[in-house]
Design a protein that fits this description.
The protein is of the alpha+beta class and 455 residues long. The protein has 22 helices and 13 strands. Adenosine-5'-triphosphate binds next to helix 7.
């Protein structure tokens, strides 16, 4: 295993001072998988005070000191070094009541969640693997260290972490581990929202997210109760060949692995069960489900304590996930004026995201061939590229006149904003050029239609 130079030097310095020290956890797992670890965590027999003595003169952060973690900064990169420890009793399904420092790395490995996360490595000792982690890595298995049920009872977040690692690495979950996590799923409600959110978003962005969502729907329904009615829900509509959960999973698989997009797809049809009406032929329809889903998305993002910007973004994508993008005759609307108005409404990035969402949603019905939807998406994106190529005006900021110009003409109050909007619409529709003189001229020529009557 190849360790980066700074990691080797940290291990070497602690070892020279007499303290066994290893790379441990996620970085060992990733390195054995041939992946680039995103950070290198170390563990050592040195106490925090002893570490501090060894690293005098280095830049040190003491944030995790109570749990035995010291962070050393080398070339601005943080390395976490933690004293070997065992966890005391867990009485609240979340955190150990106490931690105890221990002398042996094997005791530290035993407190870790899964066998693939419970390996340590140092150049002179090689791999320390007491729980069959390397074998499970080759078999692509997530398995608890020790008794699964006991370990999930200690810390319920591990239930979601098991699903997360399986989704991210495309691993199976070992049978006993799977059985225990299903049995204890309800304890997930005891876990802090921030910890849930972090794991859930990583999970949703994993390459095998779809398989895990299909395999463990009842666990996700504990995390987000609004998902419960979707499981096995018959859409009873000739545009849909899958039940609502399968449709949702397929739609999620069809968008890029970005947290906001994946969460929006998970929630985009949550409003359907509440919106359902049945027509005379007995077929179901879901008028207004977009707004109900958006309301649910607001509640879910608040419960998960998403930051304000992502919450707003997710809700917007949910609310407009199927805003009309075709003409009345069913053909794609690629008109310049239409696209400019949508750019004004959503901004370029969100408009592109909504086009992607639209294609994924349609493909996930099972009735529209993926190739056809992919071709239509490409056509929409190309049309958007063409419209954007000559840097058109679709925001008030880019309009050749501004509020001051209208104030100078004598407009006041609401009329200023409304007139600017009206001018922008004319420019986007191609009825007026985006030139100051032409825009101001149009106002004097066409006063009544542009609210100048209010002067
Ligand atoms: P990632 O690649 O997401 O960072 P990771 O395995 O490094 O994955 P972390 O959350 O950074 O995950 O945790 C580091 C290590 O600490 C894990 O590999 C595992 O050994 C241990 N660990 C983390 N969370 C828990 C937990 N809830 N219970 C037991 N051990 C845990
Ligand atoms: Mg990590």
């Amino acid at each position: 295993m190849q360790l980066p130079q700074p990691v080797l030097s940290l291990i070497y310095r602690l070892r020279s001072a007499g303290f066994p020290t290893y790379a441990v956890g996620g970085c060992v797992r990733d390195a054995l998988l041939g992946l680039e670890p995103h950070d290198w965590d170390l563990c050592t027999s040195a106490s925090p005070d002893q570490m501090r003595a060894v690293f005098t003169g280095e830049r040190i952060a003491e944030t995790g000191l109570r749990h035995g973690t010291l962070t050393v900064l080398i070339d601005h990169v943080p390395y976490e070094i933690t004293t070997f420890r065992t966890d005391g009793e867990y009485t609240d399904h979340r955190r150990p009541d106490s931690v105890t420092f221990v002398a042996d790395v094997r005791e530290d490995l035993a407190r870790r969640d899964f066998t693939v996360n419970a390996m340590a490595y140092a150049p002179d000792t090689g791999l320390v693997d007491c729980f069959g982690g390397r074998e499970d890595l080759s078999a692509r298995l997530i398995r608890c260290v020790g008794d699964s049920e006991y370990r999930f009872r200690e810390d319920a977040l591990r239930i979601l972490r098991a699903l997360r690692f399986a989704a991210v690495y495309d691993f199976e979950i070992e049978e006993n581990t799977a059985r225990a996590l299903r049995a204890l799923k309800d304890t997930l409600t005891l876990v802090a929202a921030e910890r849930i959110r972090t794991e859930l978003l990583k999970l949703l962005c994993g390459p095998a997210a779809g398989r895990i969502l299909r395999g463990f729907p009842e666990v996700f329904a504990v995390l987000i109760p609004a998902l419960a009615p979707m499981i096995g829900y018959d859409q009873n509509n000739h545009h849909h060949s899958y039940d609502l959960w399968e449709h949702t999973v397929r739609a999620l698989e069809g968008v890029p692995p970005e947290p906001d997009l994946r969460l929006a797809m998970l929630l985009h049809d949550t409003g359907k069960p509440r919106a359902c009406v049945t027509d005379r032929r007995g077929e179901s329809h879901f008028p207004g489900h977009q707004a109900i889903s958006a309301e649910i998305a607001e509640e879910v993002t608040a419960a998960l304590r998403c930051d304000a910007a992502s919450a707003e973004h997710v809700c917007k994508l949910v609310r407009y996930h199927d805003f009309p993008i075709r003409k009345a005759d069913g053909t794609p609307n690629l008109d310049r004026a239409f696209l400019l108005r949508q750019l004004h409404r959503f901004g370029e990035q969100d408009l592109r995201a909504l086009f992607i969402i639209h294609a994924a949603d349609r493909t996930a019905t099972g009735y529209s061939p993926p190739e056809r939807e992919a071709a239509r998406l490409a056509e929409r994106m190309a049309a958007l590229d063409a419209v954007l190529a000559d840097q058109p005006c679709f925001t008030l900021r880019d309009l050749a006149v501004n509020g001051n110009d209208l104030l100078a003409l004598g407009l006041r109050g609401k009329a200023v904003g409304e007139t600017l909007e009206a001018l922008l619409e004319k420019v986007m529709d191609g009825a007026l050029p985006n030139e100051r003189e032409a825009l101001l001229d149009s106002l004097s020529g066409d006063a009544s239609s542009l609210n100048i009557s209010q002067i």
